[in-house]
Structures are given as C-alpha cells and as structure tokens.
C-alpha cells in the first residue's frame, strides 16, 4: 500500500514538473513576466494554475478574496495562473489607464470564459470587432434625452420605496431588498414601460426573481474553481443553473411578445428616432435581423448588470450614511435647500452636488465591481514594463481606489473629495468604479441618476442609523457584485415632519 502511495506521489510530482517545464518552454514570455512581477514561483497545476494557494487558506474562493489573500502574503501587483492562462493583477492607476484605453485591449480577459454560459453573445463578452458597432448602436438607449425621460419613473419608484422601507425589519437582507428596487427601475425604463398601466407584472416579477436566483447559482459555479464551468453546467450541482437559464428564456419570450404588441412606431419618438429605450433598440428590425439569436443573452445581461451593481451600491450608501451622521446631515440639508418641502423635480438633480459626491465616495471605498480584466492582443507597454501578447491584465479598482498614493487617508469616508472644486485633484486612473475607456460601463449615467434620486428621497424622509463602527469591519467578497459576508445593519426611522 505504502509503495502504491509512493508511486502515485512520484507520478504526480513528475507530471507537475513536466507541466511546469512545458509552460516555461511554450509560454516563456509569460513565465518571465510573471517572474519579474513578484519574483516567486509556486508550482502550477493543470486546470487550476496557482489559485490552489488561496484554496489552502480555507477561505471561500472568489476573485476578491483570492486577491486580498495574495496581497497579504505576496504583495501587489501579483500573478495568477488559471490553468495555463496568465493574469497580471494590476493595482497601479497609470497602468490601468493605459490598458483600459488601449485599442488592442478591448477584449475581455480569458477568465471571463466562466460566464460564457450565460453571456457568450452579449455586449459584455463579444469580440471587439463585433462589439464596436453594437455598442455604438445600443449607446443610443443611454443618451441624455433618454435618461431625462426616465426621471418620472425613477422618482415614482423612489416614492414607493419610501413606503416599503417603513416595513423593513432588522433581519431584512438589504442587498436583496435594493436589488429588487434596482431591477424594477431598470425594467420599467429600459423596457419602455413608462406610464403604462396594464403591465404584465407576473412575468416582470418572475424575470426579476430569476435574475436574482440565477446570480446566486452562478456564484456557486464561480466559487468552485476546481470544477471548470463547462463541466459544472453538465453535472448535478449545475442543474439549478440550467433550469433557471431555460426558465429565463421562456419568460423573456413572453415579455417580448407582450412588448411587441405594444411596440411604438418609430414616428412616435420625438427627436432622433435612433434614441429609444433599450428594448425598442433591441426589438428594432435592424437589430433583430442581425442578432436575433443573441437577444435573450443581451436581455439577461442588461438586467443582471443593472440590478446587483446598483442594488448593492444603494445598500452600501445607506449603511455608510447611518454610520456617519454628520455626512447624512449634510445630505439632508442639501436636499432641503434644493428641494425643500416640494417633490423632487428633474431640474433639482444637477444641484444635488453633495449627494452625488456621497454616491461617488461610496463607490470609491466599496466598488461593487472591484476588479475586471482585459486580454492583450499584442505586447502592451504599460509604462515601467511591457505585458506580453496573450497575457491578461486584471485591474483591481478596489486596490487602486484605496491606495494611499492616490487617496489621502483612503479608508476615511470623505465625500468632499468629489465636490466640483476638488475634482481636479483626482489622479487620472485612480477612480474606476465604472471602468474606463471605450469599454466602460454603458449604464453609468443611468445608475448615477437613479442612485442620486433614491438617496435624496430616502434621506429626506428617514433618519438612518447603523451599528457598524468602521469600514474595516466589513468582510468583503465578490463573485459577481461585491458585498459583505456579514449582514448589513441599517435602520430607517421616519423623520418627524412636525
Ligand atoms: C452602480 C452601478 C454600476 C456599476 C458599479 C457598474 C460597473 C461596471 C463595470 C466596472 C463594467 C466593466 C466590466 C468589465 O470591464 O468587465 C460595467 C460594464 C457594463 N455595465 Fe455596468 N455598472 C453599473 C450599472 C449598470 C447599469 C444600470 C447597466 C444597464 C443599464 C449596466 C450595464 C453594463 C453593461 C451592458 C456593461 C458591458 C459594457 C460593454 O462591455 O460594452 N451597468 N459596469
């Protein structure tokens, strides 16, 4: 028996040595770059590369916790190998700026392969050449005129939220609560349902619930790097994911049928006929002919991308406002000065400067998409080094935005950093919650307006408190959108209007 174990061990060591040797020979430039980046070498294993090091710590594995672990033990920047695919983890603003704006870094990192099962043909993942015209076209759904037309819906939904929050108990999962709200706002506006009364609410709610549960199932896939995605979706643990995916296809089909029945004629749009809500762009003849098969993935992507990111950011906003009453008071004073006892008007939005600064500061300290990656189609000179062709660069917005070289006292919650008079002090590339360059977040403007209206209306109506004492006590994890492992404590007490 002992001999057998010894033999197996020898074979294992031999195979690992051969695999590493093979990498050194066939991926010499990547290996050399990795070596120069942090100068240590842990044997790489087939399929999982060096990420097993994080598994050994016993923590639940995902990109952020793995990166935080690597930061602690090796320092940043560092190198991750997922099988033979090399990923450089960048925490430098200048390098991030170069990569995100480089025309040969428009494709997503190879690690995104794991999300292909859901979004292969969507804007998020498609190849740069195909992506360019599609992004230009879909951008029309997020132009300022369109965003302005969303205001009444956003405001109305924020008023419903004021009522709903009165029933929020201490056990409420704030992430799920605000995700639901964010989804509804996205759906009613981008799916062009403003002002319509006979909505297909059953299917809309089903769609929202499916987006939520499909993300939960996806987190399970991403948190298990030992089983590759293409195997996971074919074995029992992936059964729920498969079922949700099929179900979401059916629901979207019903919603599309319903929407097509009500589809507005192009002539009914004022101004530029190309500027229309997202759904009308997706259902236009031009789009449908070309990308018909890809419609479902696009719908799912947009709904998913709009929901958790905005929902989690709102949960963070209110918790931090509860933790920092002085800052909350300033938001309240601004809202009362700009809006007073009236309802919030569209024209008020641009004058809520401090409120906007609060949202920006929350996204600096707690960026809901803390890291994202690009693939280098050719050698990319990032200033002090050249990333070799075929390597991937992951930008850690999380680390850049907490780096004391760029932000004084980085863990201090200080919205004044984002007041107009201080904006020129922000170092380019040091603030990236929505990414940057041509492939940044298409929904940035929409999310910002919605969050401003929501924060203003909630602070106007409630005094917020939280038991959390410091940002350092948040244990963070991120498979898709970042959140805390611990429950967020946040209480909303109606303000005394007397
Ligand atoms: C607080 C809210 C949000 C944050 C922090 C956020 C952040 C981001 C980030 C960092 C990316 C780049 C990801 C990457 O490079 O892999 C991204 C891409 C994207 N976001 Fe957002 N997002 C938010 C809200 C939204 C909303 C409301 C929508 C839709 C209405 C949206 C739709 C998208 C889409 C479609 C992409 C892919 C864009 C492309 O590749 O061309 N996001 N978002």
Structural overview:
This protein has one domain (84-494): Cytochrome P450 (Cytochrome p450, Orthogonal Bundle). Helix content is 51%, strand content 8%. The chain has 19 helices and ten strands. Strands 1-2-6-3 form a four-stranded mixed beta sheet, with helices on both faces. Strands 4-5 form a two-stranded antiparallel sheet. Residues 108, 123-124, 135, 186, 190, 301-302, 305-306, 309-310, 313, 368-369, 372, 433-435, 439, 441-443, 446-447 line the site of protoporphyrin IX containing FE. It is a peripheral membrane protein. One of its GO terms (cellular component) is endoplasmic reticulum membrane. May be involved in the metabolism of insect hormones and in the breakdown of synthetic insecticides.
């Amino acid at each position: 028996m002992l001999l057998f174990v010894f033999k197996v061990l020898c074979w294992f060591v031999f195979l690992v040595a051969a695999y590493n040797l093979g990498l050194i020979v066939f991926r010499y430039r990547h290996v050399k770059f990795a070596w120069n980046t942090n100068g240590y070498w842990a044997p790489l294993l087939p399929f999982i590369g060096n990420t097993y090091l994080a598994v050994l710590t016993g923590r639940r594995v995902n990109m952020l916790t793995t990166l935080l672990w690597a930061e602690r033990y090796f320092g940043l920047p560092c190198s991750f190998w997922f099988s033979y695919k090399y990923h450089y983890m960048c925490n430098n603003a200048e390098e991030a700026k170069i990569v995100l704006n480089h025309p040969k870094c428009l494709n997503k990192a190879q690690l995104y392969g794991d999300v292909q099962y859901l979004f292969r043909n969507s804007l998020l993942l498609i190849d740069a050449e195909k992506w360019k015209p599609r992004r230009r076209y879909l951008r029309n759904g997020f132009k300022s005129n369109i965003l302005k037309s969303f205001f009444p819906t956003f405001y109305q939904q924020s008023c419903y939220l004021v009522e709903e929050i009165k029933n929020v108990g201490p056990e409420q999962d704030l992430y799920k609560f605000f995700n639901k709200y964010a989804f509804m706002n996205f759906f009613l506006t981008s799916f062009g349902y403003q002002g319509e009364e006979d909505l297909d609410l059953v299917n809309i709610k089903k769609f929202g619930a499916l987006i939520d549960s499909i993300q939960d199932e996806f987190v399970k896939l991403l948190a298990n790097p030992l089983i590759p995605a293409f195997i996971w979706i074919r074995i029992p643990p992936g059964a729920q994911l498969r079922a949700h995916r099929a179900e979401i296809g059916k629901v979207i089909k019903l919603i599309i049928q319903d929407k097509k029945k009500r589809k507005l004629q192009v002539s009914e749009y004022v101004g530029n006929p190309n500027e229309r809500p997202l759904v009308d762009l997706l259902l236009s003849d031009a789009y449908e002919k070309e990308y018909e098969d890809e419609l479902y993935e696009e719908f799912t992507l947009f709904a998913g991308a709009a929901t958790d990111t905005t929902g989690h950011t709102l949960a963070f906003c209110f918790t931090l406002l509860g933790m920092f009453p002085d800052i909350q008071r300033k938001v309240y004073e601004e809202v009362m000065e700009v809006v007073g006892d009236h309802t919030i008007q569209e024209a008020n939005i641009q004058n809520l400067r401090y409120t906007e600064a609060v949202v920006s500061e929350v996204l600096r300290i707690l960026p809901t998409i803390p890291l994202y990656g690009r693939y280098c189609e050719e050698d990319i000179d990032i200033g002090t080094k050249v990333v070799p062709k075929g390597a991937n660069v992951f930008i850690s917005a999380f680390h850049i935005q907490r780096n004391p070289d760029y932000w004084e006292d980085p863990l201090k919650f200080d919205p004044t950093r984002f007041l107009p008079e201080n904006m020129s002090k922000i170092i380019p590339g040091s603030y990236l919650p929505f990414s940057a360059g041509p492939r940044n977040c298409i929904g940035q403007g929409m999310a910002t307006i919605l969050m401003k209206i929501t924060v203003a209306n909630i602070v106007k109506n409630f005094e917020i408190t939280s038991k959390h004492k410091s940002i350092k006590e948040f244990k963070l994890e991120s498979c898709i959108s970042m959140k805390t492992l611990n429950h967020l404590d946040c209480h909303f007490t109606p303000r005394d209007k007397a």
